[in-house]
Amino acid sequence: MPTIREIAQLCGVSVATVSRVFNQPLTVSKEKREVVERVARELDYRPNESARALATKRSGLIGLVWDTDHRRPGWRHPYLQELLIGLKSALSAHGYHLLMLATSGSAALRAVGASLADPVAYVNMTRRHHLGGLVLIDSGSDASAFTAFAQSGLPCVAVDVDVDGPRATYVTSDNVGGAAMAVRHLVGAGHRRIATVTGPRANRPAVDRLDGFRAAMAGEGLAVPPEYVVEGDFYRPSGQAAMRSLIALPEPPTAVFCASDEMAVGALLAARHAGLRVPEELAVVGFDDIELAALVDPPLTTLAQDKAGIGVAAARAVLTMVHGGGTPAPAFLPTRLVVRSSSR
């Protein structure tokens, strides 16, 4: 295997520059970084990870804090799969690897006394492993742990959770604007009785989507009866149950905005079981634009999130902090209305 000095000579740069490419990539110009990375790939050069960790007190690892207990459905959600691909790819492009940290369901973690219920021990564990930073993905019950991480001084980027700390920021979609687009689309199609199936009320995107829905309805001069707001959990069965309750109302809605595509698919199933024609008798709009949205019958109108882009934005934010670039402002990625047959 070639040495770092040989890589530097072949690239016409200093040894220090090659070292920064692998240890502090954002401090090297894009042109030089691409040359060094290309030569390293051609020669199959790999930095000595142990030596690098000792020298920099960082392991080249970014921790992912996410409760993946098999009893919770969150890890199976298509939205998160694409997000993780974007996150991992962006970190790998800068020489970092993603380490998924065990959570309270793990016997290994219990053995060292750390869990999401014991966030101080968890923070200490991340320091022992010299992690460069953390990406936090909410599972619905991690608020106290996320607060501890954000206040620890470690570079932290949360996805869909607004955290506050000396080196903490967050990345999310424009959920308010996306929900408003859904309402305006349905109003433009002639609907006035519009209901919504929300996500869990403790979830930031769910709250924002409900706020966007209410604001847009008010802006259109339309009332939202209390019974037109039904809480779900982002998954298909809750959307199906919510739609059944809406159909049973004395004056049911003619259109429904669901805060996730999974719930919208459940709503379509309930409508079909009730004998309603979509979109002639009931229009349905979702949120996420997962792969299934284009495959159901009828294909689902939805608000597309840049799922991989959220992962890339999270990676860029955490690496900026890792390399001393300050704490980035929260990032709100735009959403896009994708009109299909469920609302025409």
Automatic annotation (TrEMBL):
Signal sequence coordinates: none
PROSITE patterns: HTH_LACI_2
Pfam families xrefs: LacI, Peripla_BP_3
CDD domains recorded: HTH_LacI, PBP1_LacI_sugar_binding-like
Record keywords: DNA-binding, Transcription, Transcription regulation
GO molecular function: DNA-binding transcription factor activity; transcription cis-regulatory region binding
Coiled coil start-end: none
Metal-binding found in the keyword field: no
Matching InterPro entries: HTH_LacI, LacI/GalR-like_sensor, Lambda_DNA-bd_dom_sf, Peripla_BP_I
HTH lacI-type domain span: 2-56
Name of the molecule in the record: LacI family transcriptional regulator
Species, as recorded: Saccharothrix texasensis
